[in-house]
């Protein structure tokens, strides 16, 4: 029946939703009002922070369009100030959440968060220099690129790498949730999914990028170039470990310096791609490859393997 | 020539664009001012509605960051009220559009829309409980997941499944256009393309997700896990059906309970993947598979097939 | 140490970031304050312009939801006026930037930009008619499509094609940077990556679309249909060209009229897919195919090849 | 006590506020859910509508700053379309509310509202010409005015008169609530309080304006000029009318053509200020004045009088 | 000279502005970085809070236009939650600032602020009932008022009284700065300037209102009605108090029950206007008046007096 | 008649509005498309600029609430940069408009505008120091003021004076239109109407302020204090000047140092109020007053006079 003044029976639905939430909390051992799943960091807040950091790192190209060199430093300083304060607030939320999860007191959380974000702030100039090598790599790696400036405006791969280098710093600083959210923001707009734990050397370039997946324990050398839909994944987890999968275990590939991996290649497990090798498009690879190797579908035997 | 005061010749362009629109309307048998392609639902409106519904379903994790448990119900009630009214308006647009398309009167449209959205509202608590099983599945399915809370913030697969379960309800309720728009909103931000018609059981988990395609008549059991770039598609439509392709026809796979499908696997046609099977990465499959099967590229002969 | 009143040492960081930027400028031969990387076009501005152009081209379906036919022309005229002025400003930025890059004077830039955008504006009615053929192609090509109106609201492929046809015009007009930004805006929201240089005939349809890559010199005929994850790419660039890769060189496939290419197919190099051919899912192809051919993984020998 | 997880006792306050509302509704004879004080027009909506109408009436001066003459008509047409639709929605709310208040059915409300707003729309060109006479009056009346263009940008009196002429049309059309809201929007930003019922002839000019009050039944001729803090009010209502004050009764002054009233003058009751008279600053007046009179504090005896 | 790349000499101006600020801080005995004038409450924040509180107090008339009675409580609860949390943050800023000014520690500030805002929250139902008497007073006091609903939408006097009653509670609670900001927000939009210290009885009505000033120690009884430009002010402060003016001293009028004061009347000093009196327009009054008196300019001798 | 698909007859109204505009342009001697009333400065733009300048002048009190001293200079520099560029754009519009009005070429306009805004920028530190004297004057002049910080947050008089000192600089620099718009922005939110031409000495304080009017040629000394509804106006312009009123002519009062003027006083004509005088409330004054005079209604004969 369609009652005009009370169409939605909101009281009923709201109360049933509360029941569902309580059921969930009970199932997962939450004490209501205490460990109640609240005060998590916010994805929307992180998106704003990352946009501001991109502007502060590359003011003339990712900052406001009418910026002039005279006022760059004012813009950079003010933007960093706002972004770092906001990031500090998010870091506190994560640390407080982590303390609750671990059943530890959250006394020192504010102090710790401040120290972590101070370190993060001090690392920014080094990250900028590192990112400059990525921009040059993109410029030299794509014959279609007309200028280094164009790279920052148009290449989704660069956007993903900027986010990754910032997220990786957070990951190592003990803020894995903020790191993960940062990575997913880039994933959502580029289709490139790099776990913030992955270690990536200078002059890294991803072209096109949609569908790229790079796992948590992957290690990538310098001057590596990869194309769309490349996976650097884990093999299936062994069944004999009493059912429980071990975490933190190195399980993704090591890619040495100067490697090129063409589109659609799938590389699985803790194997090593030797320095200077080339992996052809759509190649499926679960065994290590020596340096200088040129691997294609034609010269490769498929091995069986499932991946994660 | 560049006339400063009249650079664009707007009158000319506007009038030629009108001619182009009229040509289109004539070609497609539209009567101007009557069936004239207007009053379609709005994608921007649906995006706001879905964001509000996500917040109402998971207030502490997808709602505003400063929410406290005390005021959860107020937030949920108010947010639902706004979202359901807005959804009602969109449903009326779709039903009125459908009536016009079918040449039927649109008398009862407002009444019908109200009933449909009332049913939708009443289903939300059940959908929340169902989604809780998906969250747990993600938490247990990914060794990198640190907590159930993290899953909702960071996993694109969960975002896609929330949208799908809401869209699937709309689809079954006779609102296929709203359903489709909802699915595309998730597709755009996750790269995961699930047709709202697909039936998906509890505890469903998609990891990474970019490039996943699940077709309209696919049926997926409980506790199924799939990875990025998996396709559950249709085979090529047979040529002998007098040229006209039949709609609604079951043409996508049935995936039974406890199946795992690794990245890049392509599964086409109305075949069945038996309970507990594992399909390896990049596998191309157009024939049914019995329960408990462990299929990899190595132990499988490619069959010919094109897909839709 | 955590000093409450000066936690970030902003002066230090700002000054180190300036050092990093100066280093970059020196390395890349920039004269500060002159060629200093500034006054590039803005991606945010282009995103607004393209949204407005979509509304002006399809007012009843991509314009504001409450538009009525009576006032279509007012909406179209006003929206175009705003969008074209904004596009003109972006075009000036690109031309001035290009002049600086080339070491040429930028005297005539404003005049040239006006002429280019005038041509662009005059081309819009023709582009609208061309896009109508794409909408019909989508409607006829997907058995799930219920109406032509639905196509514009729900199909990411259509969104990508609208952006491409606008971007291609800019590309040919000598605004490759605006063109590239426009293409990336579509890439980001659809996962479909079409280089603005690609030439595409009428009645073009991409279904699902995530992961599609179409290269700069690709030529696509009329009534072509392709599915998700299809690549029309370049083969590896020959090593014997004194190290330097040649630009502009035709290096992507020619796809003739009435070809269908199923999901995941990879087609590389300046080869030709003959009229009316069908390329099966996941096929890897680096040799030309005659007209009327039906190619699947089963009836094809893999050839070696890496792609770009 | 300050309970961290439940500081506000929201349930208690919300329920007491509900009790207070119910008490009010009972006292004022409202039936909950039926006449319940809802669906009144919105001040925020009217503010947007009036801003749009100002832009449509004076596109080059109150419209967007980058408008060019070429596209004026597109802007005007599109802006009017949006504004009139929004005004129609507000008019329906007022008429439905008035019907409920009067205990009448609201069947014809939508039809009536449409007719009223159609008339309003058709009156706009005439109102524009009338307002042009006010702009010229301001230009000629203030020696400090440098150009007619400046008047529209800087004179609060003109803003008040534009709002009044629009509000007066609504008032006569049977939309007194929308009229009153429109008048209060101008009152709030200019300090000039003109009741929408007042009749005002062409070429009207208010200088400075703060504190001006013009009552509901005032009648003002052509070419009248008044200064800040002038009151055209009612005298005290007679006590002998059985306690009940009569509404609609003419109770404010008639000001004939070419009158000037200087700052702070108070003119009360249904008296007439004869053609061409001048009323000095701070004069207190409750008796009629013949044509051509020049009245100052010095040549006038104060009469007793209180005003409304 | 106009240097294109450095037109503003920002470094110079920024440094001179800093010098000016430091000079100010030195002059006023501020220790930089400690008492440095920072962390004051924000007017913009208070404006949002007050708008939300108005909506929570009168949801159907000052809340969102599409609210229905069914969902009133959800809206009220959610809106209060947001507004009270924001108000708490502002209260902390004021208390911390006051502690610094007084050279006291700010240890208990957060606790105190919570208690104060809890009291404020609990007082809201009583304030709503009080405001209902003001609304009825306006409805009965103005023959032009058509309905009680109209009063809330259109009468600036009501807006001023709502803000006053909220501000007065803050003032008494020891938050004079928030109180003052709240009063100024109303002053700015209505021209009515009521000091938050003034005590005002039930059923209070101000008509038109522009220019009304009511001082800090004024006491107003029940059922009082006043018109525009009325001043309830202080007389000049006596010169013999060793130059220093005493604060908090009662210095504004006492207005007893059922008094009416017409427009422009000026009433100065700690005098008493007896119950039921009427004060005529423009009357200048510095002596007490017995009950039942009817005072006009004609029957009153002016006394000399200046006012504050 | 109410045609659903074409209710507004927009074509008719738009065309009649165009006719009205053309009539106006013809009457006022405008050449369409050339002098056509366009490219005037924007009030909305000036409002944003002034808000930014207030923040840059008083960063800790009128800037963002979370600013810390460490980052003040970054905020000030970045905010000034944005505000000055925007002001430059407005200045160009005014100068170009003035050139067109005067029939002069607008060649040097951009250069001139840059020089004017450079001067304006360099004057800001001096204006800040001047405003500090006004803040102290308010603090000392009002016994209710608790701290200098409160003055900037709560006193409308200070807001008006900040705007005036900025506007006065623009006025003297040859940007009278921007100056006037700035003054009206303050007038609208404070009810205080100070013509930007007025010259005002240091330590100026206006209390309450609603209804204050200060004319273009008024000259005010140091340490002057005035209250609400005070007028410093012009007497009536003599009739014998061949009908045409002379502009620029000194016609408003000179108020010497240390004068206090109480509420409602009206002071008209080019008279002088001698140093240290006190003018009582509601006094009407058109003759000069010697130094040290204490004037009240009681000891003063009214003289006749009307004012402008």
UniProtKB/TrEMBL annotation, chains A, B, C, D, E, F:
Signal peptide: none annotated. Its EC number is 2.3.1.30. The keyword Secreted does not apply. Keywords: Acyltransferase, Amino-acid biosynthesis, Transferase. One of its GO terms (molecular function) is serine O-acetyltransferase activity. Belongs to the transferase hexapeptide repeat family. InterPro entries: Hexapep, LbH_SAT, Ser_AcTrfase_N_sf, Serine_acetyltransferase, Trimer_LpxA-like_sf. It catalyses: L-serine + acetyl-CoA = O-acetyl-L-serine + CoA. This is serine O-acetyltransferase. GO terms for biological process: amino acid biosynthetic process. Pfam families: Hexapep. It is an enzyme of class 2 (transferase). The keyword Transferase applies.
